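Pinned message: reference record for Peptidyl-prolyl cis-trans isomerase
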Amino acid sequence: MLKRLAAVAACLSVLALAGCGNESDGGDTASDATETTDSPAATVTCEYPEDGQEAAREVDPPPADAESEGTVTATMTISFGDIGLTLDRADAPCTVNSFVSLAEQGFYDDTPCPRIGDQDGFGILQCGDPTGTSSGGPGYSFGDELTGDETYPAGTLAMANAGADTNGSQFFLVFRDSQFPPSYTTFGTIDEAGLKVIDAIAAEGNDNSNPAGGGAPNKPVTIEKVTIG
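Predicted structure (tokens):
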């Protein structure tokens, strides 16, 4: 919908994506997903409990069984052009499962990307909240899928969150090598053409309204549609 700089930049990166995504009490997490062996395809069992917040758009939660091998391609058509994505099921099966489910239900269609940052150690475009407030979500949450070794170079697709195990619908696209702590689940990559599209957005500037970095794009950015496959 979130690798070292000097101390000041490091502090900024810790705060950079806090307050994004859905708050919850944690509870069951996707990191507890268990392998199932009674299916030809490798799968894990994911949990998507309600998070106590009203969904920004009415959607069904994803199916519990998620494939845990291979990749999925997606195209995010935005007002500036197309961004090609490759989603990695092996890296984050429950996250990919959720993203695909939301995309197929039209959750991301005609929604804004309300934040962009273009500074040393912080180059991201944040999307995934239909309300455009950076606080909306799908009405459910799910756990982090982290190894502790995550880095965020240009071309990374990662989840935004409001703390541990509060993933929902919001995600960010990294278009500059960024210095974040390994607290944001990575679940795919962005193609070269997509990075150029985000560069064009960044070139328009932003209002620097977010104290943790970046702000609203000077030229509004809208996701017109996310197509899977």
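Pinned by admin. Summary line: The mean pLDDT is 87.
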